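$ ./design --mode recover --in tokens.txt
reading tokens...
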């Protein structure tokens, strides 16, 4: 039963792809209206060198945005946990940043930051830092009071309390937020590239769409999906490396 539950998502995807292929072939739907999965795979293989070149730019932007989000998320998360007044002041602002669509903010970033990498990286940061902050601050707040009292009993400072007890205990929560953010990071970079760029998967996607080359559009979407899964997998590997062995099983199965 457990093996079937693991294979079920793959089976569902295969059934949907087979249905999609059959509908396109039997109905004779033109390529420029809806390509079949076989057309998409064929184009993906043919265009792979070009897609890979654009993917390198997108991944670089995503990694830079993730690194900034990670650093900012840790700092803000600790401040939210340590200073209730800070939480009351900053939390509504954090929520507001998630209510405005990034596609609306991207042109504003370009006006003030130009057409380089900076606006794309900032777009990734805006999409990624919120789940990191929320997950990490929640993890810090759920710490068992008994452990904190033990550190205080031995004369531990507030800094030592976070370094020895709170931050290590909240690592799984932090990594869970980082895993969600990693999945968003590629999409954030692509959205930034939609507005103005000369390279990247977003640039490739817009060119293919404007040329009604839907097989290339779907091939690009497939590359974006694969890269998002890759980023998610990298976070899992990172979590496996930094977590103690006693907690790795819980992380890898989450």
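writing sequence...
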């Amino acid at each position: 039963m457990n093996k079937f539950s693991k294979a079920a998502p793959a089976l569902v995807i295969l059934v949907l792809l087979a249905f999609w292929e059959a509908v396109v072939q039997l109905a004779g739907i033109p390529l420029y209206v809806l390509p079949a999965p076989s057309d998409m795979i064929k184009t993906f293989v043919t265009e792979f060198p070009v897609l890979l070149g654009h993917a390198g730019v997108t991944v670089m932007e995503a990694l830079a945005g993730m690194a900034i989000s990670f650093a900012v998320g840790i700092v803000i998360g600790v401040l939210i946990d340590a200073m209730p007044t800070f939480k009351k002041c900053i939390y509504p602002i954090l929520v507001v940043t998630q209510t405005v669509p990034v596609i609306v903010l991207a042109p504003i970033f370009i006006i003030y930051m130009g057409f380089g990498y900076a606006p794309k990286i900032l777009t990734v940061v805006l999409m990624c830092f919120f789940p990191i902050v929320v997950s990490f601050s929640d993890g810090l707040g759920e710490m068992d009071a008994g452990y904190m009292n033990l550190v205080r009993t031995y004369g531990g400072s507030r800094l030592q309390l976070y370094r020895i007890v709170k931050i290590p205990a909240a690592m799984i929560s932090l990594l869970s937020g980082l895993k969600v953010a990693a999945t968003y990071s590629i999409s954030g970079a692509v959205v930034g590239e939609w507005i103005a760029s000369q390279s990247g998967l977003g640039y490739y996607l817009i060119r293919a769409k404007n040329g009604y080359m839907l097989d290339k559009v779907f091939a690009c979407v497939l590359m974006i999906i694969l890269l998002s899964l890759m980023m998610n997998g990298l976070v899992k590997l990172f979590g496996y490396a930094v977590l103690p062995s006693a907690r790795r099983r819980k992380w890898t199965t989450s």
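exit 0
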